[in-house]
Design a protein that fits this description.
Shape: flat
Strand content: 5-15%
Order of helices and strands: HHHHHHHEEEHEHEHEHEEH
Largest sheet: 5 strands, mixed
Number of domains: 3
Number of strands: 8
Helix content: 40-55%
């Protein structure tokens, strides 16, 4: 029995650590998934704390996994793990049975899994954690108290530190469709070999107070005795014919679609500002240097935001006050830019580099190596 307890303890601990590390690479991704749940449950007021909840949940997964491996404070962590897995199982069960999600976000965007797979995984984990809970008295620390406390301290610092890093400097592993070397125009197209949704036409008729559904080929011979109610399209099989990038449409003050104009430029610099929660004063000096170099090279620079009027106000008085501003869908921007703001360097629509506002100098240095382009 002791051997079985230890095997399950290690497996569950490693899985929690792995799950936490994958999500720690992009805590904003989990926060956005939480917001989807909140909005469905009419709890949109909680959106303001979604990121903090995401950070805490991710950190706890890593810390709890390490505690389980070390056999530390099992009375406390067995309860916490049990409560957490019940909560996760409820969420994944809701995602699966409601049919409202294609990806539960349990392993972030790097390892997308279906709600069904995630729900079954959590059911198995629930059984394993219940077993550990029932046998928690048999789990003993595997190291000295000093070594265990040091390991737990390091795990805590790391779990929060890695999230602080990626929120400020972009994810270490970019698993989003806007990753480097990807062409945005191509990512906006449906991949070859994708299957469209399979839709069946169904006619609804009424006879003697009861409604019946018929396919076009299955209409009854005595159709004249039925009363037509409506026609509807019934989803038979959900396809996967969706482009990786959706909603990336750039428009200016005239609302004209300028997306392909921007993406067709030989070289382009894009400044993504979802909003101005990060004051312009924090990145103004670095962007002014980047903007000056781009103008010297005749490389166009565009600002992309959800708040064009606020952008004009915030850019007034800077050396880049004349920058052309485009508005874009909120979801598209927050997918493209996990830091606010983020700078892209494009070559004919292909992402050559992307950096958070804290590393704009890297894009500036790259631009300095470019020859001066001819004015178009």
């Amino acid at each position: 029995m002791k051997l079985l307890v230890n095997i399950i303890r290690v497996l569950v601990g490693l899985l929690f650590i792995f799950s936490g590390l994958v999500k720690a690479n992009d805590p904003l991704g989990l926060a956005y998934k939480m917001e989807e749940y909140f909005e469905l449950w009419n709890l949109a007021a909680l959106n303001s704390i979604a990121l903090w909840l995401s950070i805490i949940v991710i950190a706890f997964e890593i810390i709890a996994g390490v505690a389980l491996l070390l056999g530390w404070q099992m009375r406390l962590f067995s309860w916490l793990l049990l409560l957490l897995i019940i909560f996760f199982t409820f969420l994944t069960g809701y995602a699966y049975f409601s049919g409202k999600f294609t990806n539960c976000g349990c392993f972030g965007d790097c390892i997308p899994i279906t709600p069904k797979t995630s729900f079954l995984k959590d059911v198995v984990l629930t059984v394993l954690i219940v077993f550990l809970f029932a046998n928690r008295k048999n789990i003993r620390p595997v190291a000295s108290n000093t070594a265990t406390l040091l390991a737990m301290l390091l795990a805590t610092i790391f779990s929060f530190g890695i999230q602080w890093y990626v929120l400020n400097y972009l994810p270490v592993f970019d698993c989003l469709p806007y990753k480097k070397e990807k062409n945005i125009s191509k990512q906006m197209q449906i991949p070859e070999g994708s299957l469209p949704d399979s839709i069946a036409v169904v006619f609804v008729y009424e006879k003697e107070g009861k409604q019946y559904e018929f396919t076009p080929a299955g209409l009854p011979a005595d159709l004249a005795s039925y009363k037509f109610v409506k026609r509807k399209d019934k989803l038979i099989r959900k396809g996967n014919a969706e482009p990786p990038i959706k909603g990336f449409v750039l428009s200016g003050i005239t609302d004209q679609d300028s997306t392909q104009h921007v993406l067709s430029q030989p070289y382009t610099v894009l400044l993504f500002c979802q909003n101005f929660s990060t004051p312009v004063s924090k990145w103004k000096a670095d962007f002014e240097k980047l903007y000056a170099v781009a103008k010297e090279k005749n490389i166009p620079v565009f600002a992309i935001t959800t708040q064009p009027s606020e952008a004009r106000k915030n850019f007034a008085g800077t050396s880049f006050s004349d920058i052309q501003i485009f508005k874009c869908d909120f979801t598209a921007i927050r997918t493209a830019a996990r830091a606010n703001p983020t700078v892209y360097l494009l070559q004919s629509g292909t992402i050559e580099d992307k950096q958070s506002y804290r590393r704009m100098d890297r894009v500036t240095n790259e631009l300095k190596r470019f020859p001066v382009l001819q004015r178009q």
